[in-house]
Amino acid sequence: MPDDVASVPVRPRRFGRWAVTLWIVLGLFVAPILISAAHLALKERPHWSRASHVSTGQAPDPATTLEPVVQVYAARTWGLRGALAVHTWISSKRANADHYIRHEIIGWRLYHGGTALVRGPGRPDAMWFSNYPELLVDLRGKDVEDVIDKVEAAAAAYPYAATYRTWPGPNSNTFTAFVGRQVPELGIDLPPTAVGKDYLTNGAVIGPSPSGTGYQVSFWGLVGAMAALKEGIELNLLGLVVGIDFQPFALKLPGLGRLGLK
């Protein structure tokens, strides 16, 4: 071999490492979103004006349930946003009450009443624009009356009642996560599709996780990380969450949500 050829230094291929990183990003963030969007496209969806908001029967009947109850629900949002995100809310019923109170943030209410915070009688477990809600928290018993007091105080203290942004927050999931941080008795484990849950209030960068069992770092809900006993480990990139849950084991992916044992 000629000396001039043999003396040429061999440089390591850096493109290979970049390619692996790119495939990991595509596999964890982009592919799940595309799968979720395809599923939504194949699903029959009524116009929002004809969408159902009927009760799903997951909440105990107040006519026969005397004890206080607190429940937290999550349901896919209406329209294309449903491929990525859920809407969450909190329902409560005091002892001997004949109805439930729903606590939630509804964006369009801000433009009609000056506040997006809605607290009033409503169906606790209703479909959300024909999307079936998942029950995240179900607390019952005499001690729950104190939890309701704390939920109502936290809802009243929510600092963004007059502000709403679909992405990255503050939105309905920011509200539910805020109440969860103020009331750790709820033990809320919000799904990875609860976009906006990582938007920490009042400009905070470090705070407790929504369940109160760990901590998280978040920059305006756009980039961050979380480690908690209940939520597991999560990485947030542009409001999209990838993570691992350990109790029980599950994989958390954007759009698809939590995949694993319930």
Task: Please characterize this protein's 3D structure.
With 262 residues, the protein is α+β, with helices and mostly antiparallel strands. It has one domain. 23% of the residues lie in helices and 27% in strands.
Nutshell version of this structure?
It is built from five helices and twelve strands. It has 262 residues and is an alpha+beta fold. The mean pLDDT is 91.
Number of helices: 5
Mean pLDDT score, rounded? 91
Helix and strand composition category? alpha+beta
Strand sequence of the main sheet, in spatial order?
Answer: 6-7-8-9-10-11-12
Give the termini separation.
64 Å
Number of strand elements: 12
Computed over alpha carbons, the radius of gyration is: 22 Å
The low-pLDDT segments are none
Number of domains: 1
Strand content: 25-35%
Shape, principal axes of CA atoms: globular
Compressed to H and E, one letter per element, the order equals HHEEEHEEHHEEEEEEE
Largest sheet: 7 strands, antiparallel
Helix content: 10-25%
Topology:
Layout: H1 3-6, H2 15-42, E1 69-76, E2 86-93, E3 101-105, H3 110-113, E4 117-121, E5 134-140, H4 144-156, H5 172-182, E6 206-208, E7 214-219, E8 223-228, E9 232-237, E10 240-246, E11 249-253, E12 257-260
Antiparallel strand pairs: 1-2, 1-5, 2-3, 3-4, 6-7, 7-8, 8-9, 9-10, 10-11, 11-12
Task: List the defining traits of the structure above.
262 residues; 12 strands; 5-stranded antiparallel β-sheet; alpha+beta; 5 helices; 7-stranded antiparallel β-sheet
